Automatic annotation (TrEMBL):
GO cellular component: NuA4 histone acetyltransferase complex; nucleus; SAGA complex
TM ranges: none
Superkingdom, natural source: Eukaryota
GO biological process terms held by the UniProt record: DNA repair; regulation of DNA-templated transcription
Protein name: Transcription-associated protein 1
The gene coding this protein: tra1
Family matches, as InterPro entries: ARM-type_fold, DDR_Repair_Kinase
SUPFAM superfamilies: ARM repeat (SSF48371)
């Protein structure tokens, strides 16, 4: 694939209202395949041209998808690009907006994109501290919410059956405007592969506690205000029993459930650890 010659024109074309989703996907792939430019003196120009375009794609042009589809692939590639941006001083003017975009995707999208956004959020909070301390709390609130809803997540998979093609309502999150919408997963959503909402994902639960503990080490002021609420939720999550019998088609979910509970257990904070 040939390198992009004109960032400004290419980024404008990416958000043109009348182009087809497959064209946008092809253009996003071209950006991803040209990302080595971010390690050169052209990085600032690249960000000025593309950051707004990426935000528009994720927040306006496309919507979270819960089945594999070209629109999901487009969102996934854009999130992947944002995750691969070098965290040099060139990025600093864009950090606040990048955090907001990543939090929006994390709280409304599927687990595949949510997992990437957890890495984006964690790396930004780690590399641009202490100026971002005020941005940590929304992430902690999200983590509290997924622990709070952990029991109903287990019920969803192992009692309702979580069959492909059903209508699934993502759990209410701290800022999710889409939580009031019923989102169709499975073939009816335009793809054959079902994707779990990030708010109903054992993988997201597995990744969260280690990030939380590290953030407590970076931003110790937040420990006192969050531990009294967070700790009982973590204990409750590891206490949720799994199914007595696991059908073969739910075995993967069961392994993810137990992996999430083990990770939460290992990361439960003690006075010495925080």
């Amino acid at each position: 694939m040939s390198p992009i010659q004109n960032f400004e024109q290419h980024s404008r074309n990416l958000v043109e209202p009348d182009i087809q989703i497959n064209q946008r996907l092809q253009m996003a792939m071209e950006v991803r395949d040209s990302l080595e430019i971010a390690h050169t003196a052209e990085y600032l120009n690249f960000l000025k041209c593309y950051f707004r375009a990426f935000s528009v794609v994720l927040l306006q042009i496309t919507k979270p998808q819960f089945a594999d589809s070209p629109e999901h692939k487009l969102r996934n590639i854009v999130v992947e690009i944002l995750n691969r941006l070098p965290h040099s001083e060139v990025l600093r003017p864009f950090v606040q907006d990048l955090l907001k975009v990543a939090m929006q995707v994390l709280t409304t999208d599927n687990e595949e994109n949510g997992l990437i956004c957890i890495r984006i959020i964690f790396d930004l909070l780690r590399n641009f501290r202490p100026t971002l301390e005020n941005e940590v709390q929304p992430f902690l609130d999200f983590v509290c919410k997924i622990y709070q809803n952990f029991k109903s997540t287990v019920s969803h998979f192992f009692e309702s059956g979580a069959v492909a093609g059903e209508d699934v309502k993502p759990m209410d999150t701290l800022s999710s405007s889409s939580s009031d919408q019923v989102l169709t997963i499975g073939p009816a959503a335009g793809g054959s592969g079902q994707l779990n909402p990030s708010t109903r994902s054992f993988k997201i639960v597995t990744e969260s506690p280690l990030v939380v503990m590290f953030l407590f080490q970076l931003y110790s002021r937040l420990v006192q205000t969050n531990i009294p609420h967070l700790l009982p939720l973590m204990v409750a999550a590891i206490s949720v029993p799994g199914p007595e019998k696991v059908p073969p088609h739910l075995k993967t979910h069961f392994i993810e459930l137990k992996g999430a509970q083990v990770k939460v257990f290992l990361c439960i904070p003690t006075p010495a650890s925080v």
